[in-house]
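Problem: given the chain below (377 residues), write out its structure.
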Amino acid sequence: MNAPRVFFYVQHLLGIGHIARASRIASALVSDGFDVTVVTGGLPVPGFPGDGIRTVALPPVVASNAGFSGLADSNGVAADEAFLSKRRDLLLEAFHDTAPDVVIIEAFPFGRRQMRFELLPLLDAIEEAHPRPKLFSSVRDILQQNRKPGRDEETVALVRNHFDGVLVHGDPSFVRLEDTFPLTAEIASKLLYTGLVAAPRAADPEETFDIVASAGGGAVGLDLLRAANGAAAMLPANLRWLLISGPNLPEADFASLSKATPLNVTLTRFRKDFPSLLRGARVSISQAGYNTVGDLLQTDCRMILIPFVAGGETEQTVRAEQLRALGLADILPEAGLTPEIVANAVTTALAKPRAASALLDLGGAGKTASIIRSMIG
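Solution.
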């Protein structure tokens, strides 16, 4: 019997969280015997989607501003109609070539509304296919709030008319979809909670640091790193700091930061062993992204979270507040961050007992594969 074919669309626009989560799910599907094709639409990210996964790379687009309201090509030039039409045609060609049994669309229709130019034609192609593949939306547990009037109703209509299920990658004991999507009751029969999609528990670290400060993908987070760098100079010199800028921090900013690092600070763009380093750290300073928090929840490291709020983003703030309510995190504001504020927060965190790992369901990748297999029979 041929392996069921999965066509998995993922579009990351700013950080690497979406492609990282999708890659873990894709790897779990491959391990469960599926033939997986991942269609990526953002800038290449080393290591993703991963070994053994067929990949179709569309001409990349990125967010042209922090509010995600516009699209630009890899050179930062606004994406015009010809560019977008080419992408749409390549996506539809890949879909027809794959002839999948299952289609997974990451974020849409709850997010990625700016990709409707190619995703609505894809939905039409799915409906016209014989046999029609099963269609799933793959969403994180916390959605962006403050939507414009009519957007939630539009989302509900698309789910009802096209999707066989909504894979919610979260633990309902931590946060439920209705906490950030007010019309959840209208699609309740479609919801499938998978647990949080976290990487496997990391090995013990080969190198240890007292404080690890990270800026995710690095397109944002420079202020976080500057404040952490300054805080390191203010606190005892025997504390070892690691600053991870992310691959997308502009080279000029990285060079400027590098010149200002104290002797007890190590600055790097990327560490493959990041989850392992968190296991050895006493304090982590980071944004409150889905994947970073998933790594932290498998450690007893104290969290200092600085939620990303540019462009009216609310998702990371909700996650950080839930973690603070569990006694696992302290929160600092993104605006007005200073070395003094970070130094005080680190001093407070170091004085607290080590955090206990949260008892949340972190097996979302494998459970997603099991759910899909049960749905296709």
